[in-house]
Amino acid sequence: MKALLMAFSYLYFITASYASENIVLAKKHQLKSIILGEHRSYSVYLPPSYKQNLERVYPVIYLLDGDPTHLKALAGLVEALSTERLEKQIQQAIIVAVPNSKNAIRERDFTPTNVDWTFNGKLLEKFENIGNAANYTAFFEKELIPFINKNYRTSNKQVLIGESFGGLFASYVLLTNHSLFTDYLIIDATYLWDNNYLNRYFDEQQLINKQLKGNVYFTFANNAAFGEIGEANYKWGLELAKKLKAHPSNSLYINQRYFEEETHGTVAALSWYYGLKSLLQK
């Protein structure tokens, strides 16, 4: 916790010191997606040394729900933790922040099935035009990632960060297209989706007998305030992590952390801190 406070204090110090300068954290771009049938925005943060050493390549962090607030917070943390001031605890990295579509609710791209969201026979929420996770995966695989790799000096290390419904999508990618990313930070995912969909998919597809690989860091929040729903979500998340830990692959690494004092809405910052220290360690 002390190191996390130092990281944010460092970010504040830098910002205050150069308040009179026009600091550009990241550049915003658009990519015409044939797969999704729309223009998708994304922003690219480049680490401080990117223009200094033209031979160096960098890991890439793909941030789901990549709105400006999330991008500024994550970029500040990544930059601070990779400096000498904080003992270079992690590698410098490129960040590609992908905000949600302006044409549809975020659940459209993050959910793998088009169903009403129910729990124990009760309707939690009704959505329309969802279940687009397969196409969203294809957008990353065939359009965005190749474009980033072509235009920036990227290494083979690619990290996907998703929380809540974004964590559902990240888990889905891990189970269905495990070669797309090398690392996953899955933050308090929506394991409740479609009656424990992720665990059912794992069992129905007999993934215990199929190749899986990746370096995965799961985080869980204390959602006791949500009662039975919160308890079930945590239980099913632990169940998925346990199955992945038991997988015989020697290319699949699973770590997890429970934050008792954090809720679903507050767990992201600490998840970024501990997760990236694990996934991007020097």
TrEMBL record:
Enumerate the Pfam families for this protein: Esterase
Write out the entry's keywords from A to Z.
Hydrolase, Signal
GO molecular function terms listed in the Swiss-Prot or TrEMBL record:
hydrolase activity
- Whether Signal counts among this entry's keywords is yes
Instruction: Name the InterPro entries for this protein.
Output: AB_hydrolase_fold, Esterase-like, Siderophore_Hydrolase_D
Q: Which residues form a coiled coil?
A: none
Point out the signal peptide segment: 1-19
| Record family assignment | Belongs to the esterase D family.
The name under which this protein is listed is: Alpha/beta hydrolase-fold protein
Organism, by scientific name, is Pseudoalteromonas distincta
